[in-house]
Amino acid sequence: MKPHPWFVPWLVGSAVAASALSCAAQAQPVTTTPALAVSRPSLAQAVAAAWLRSAEATQAQGRQRQARADQAVAASWLAAPPALQLSQREGRGNAANGQRETDVGVALPLWRIGARATAGQAAQAELDWSTAAEQAARLQVAGQVREALGQLGGLEAEQRLAALQSQLLARLAEDVDRRVKAGDLAPADAMAAHAEWLSSQAQEAEAQQKLRSQQAQWQLLTGLAVSAQGPTPAMEAAFDLSDVHPELQLAARAVERAQRQLALVQAQRAEGPELGVSLRQERPGQGNPTQTSVGVALRLPFGTATHAQPRIAAALSEVDMALTQQQRTRDRLAAELELARSQWQGAQAQARLEAQRAALLRERATHIERAFKAGESPLPELLRALGAAAQAETASERQQALLSLAQARLHQAQGILP
Fold first, then answer.
1. Burial class of 87 by CB neighbour count within 10 A (0 to 12, 13 to 18, 19+)
2. Residue extents of the structural domains in the chain
3. Is the pTM of this model over 0.85?
4. Tell me: the pLDDT tens digits for 191-232?
């Protein structure tokens, strides 16, 4: 008899390998190839490694250095670098023979009243914003790592189950060969068993290739030459959007930053006052004593509202944009959280159903295997039962991987960093 044409064996779980055939129960455990043998650092370690390799980390460091430099400027008692002024005058003509004047001065730019404190607040707001931006960028990198980790989990399960399926069908082919030699089965049955075994080997090779490809992408993302499948974190009971979400914190710091910049622009409508200190040395002429004098000058620029309006208007626009972006960010995150919550609940229900279905088909395959050994069931029926059990086991494993991925996406939507 020929096996059913639609039967394609694919990825049976360890439970099927233990219960479907007694020979599979006696087999040694399958060991993964050296290329797939991996250690398992934690998710937090993987995220930290990916963050160090990301361009966002470099940008965050640059923004924080700039903010600290602005703080250093605001901490100075001068509004701008001081300047050294040198000048010299010499008399011309007979009456001014030998007359010379030399001026040495220092210009000290001063802060306007309240401008220094405002500049310090603006620099602090910039630093707070850069810190919040770093946390939000870390969350984005964590999302990429979680997505890659979910893909790795599914592919590792496929590779493991493909290896178990190949081992099970190899044992089955050996058993069929013995029964063909004993005259209990026809040679066609041996051909069918070997054909299914060869097909399972091809499926195993394909699963290994997919896993190696995903591991290469993982290494590119994190720099780790391992799959880094960490433990599944516990689920939180609440699904509310928290104000400590990194993206909400970033939006809030952006609003504060824009408001502080507006206050700084309003405080600096004109240039700051300038204090000048000078030393003058005069020599009236030959025979006259040299005269030295010290001068102090104060420069007070006058600012007008007209000239300050363009900068104030631009700062007001930044405040409006920051407030609008804050509300849009909150709306988007709330929608993403609701979607992630519904997907996680749906994945839970589907995983439970797939597990029940796999258990039923494993039990069915066990009964047919016993009938096959007793000579009451043909080989094609056993192969179909094993195939159905393998497909159900694969679907259950895949759904478990999808459930873990849905859980990770829910954590991502909640803004939880590992």
1. exposed
2. 14-79+113-270+312-414
3. no
4. 777 777 877 887 888 788 788 778 777 877 888 875 444 444
